[in-house]
Amino acid sequence: MRVVSLRMEDGTHTVIMGDAGRKYTPFVMLDYPVKLKKIGNRDAEKFSRDTGYPLKKAVRKFLSFGNKKLDGKRNITKGAKRFLKEAVA
Fold first, then answer.
1. Cβ distance 28 to 36 under 8 Å?
2. Do 31 and 14 touch, CB atoms closer than 8 A?
3. How far apart are CA 14 and CA 4, in angstroms?
4. How far apart, in whole angstroms, are the C-alpha atoms of residue 34 and residue 16?
């Protein structure tokens, strides 16, 4: 797991990227709602750049953003919360 800067079609985002699987690499982006997404392994290598930001601090920021309630609902999915908790475990 690492904190990277990921270039996408709508700009550059700071994401927490997981370990690469056989075809896809999972990541969580700080967006509404905070949810688990995936990107192809080749694209993950091509469009990401390491930021050097501490992983533990980034996970705290992502979880605090996700736990804020908007319209009475939480702002994070179960998969993203599980992914972030496994990142620091």
1. yes
2. no
3. 6
4. 11
Residue 32 contacts residue 75 (beta carbons within 8 Å): yes
What confidence tens digit (pLDDT) does each residue in 24-77 have?
999 998 888 888 999 999 999 999 999 989 999 999 999 988 888 777 777 889
Residue 76, classed as helix, strand or coil, is strand
Classify residue 9 by its DSSP letter. T
DSSP 28-65: EESSSSB-EEEEEHHHHHHHEEE----HHHHHHHHHHH
Say which residue the tokens 């990921």 belong to.
Answer: 6
First to last CA, the chain: 11
| Tokens standing for residue 52 | 């050097």
The pTM score is 0.86
Tokens of 39: 């990107």
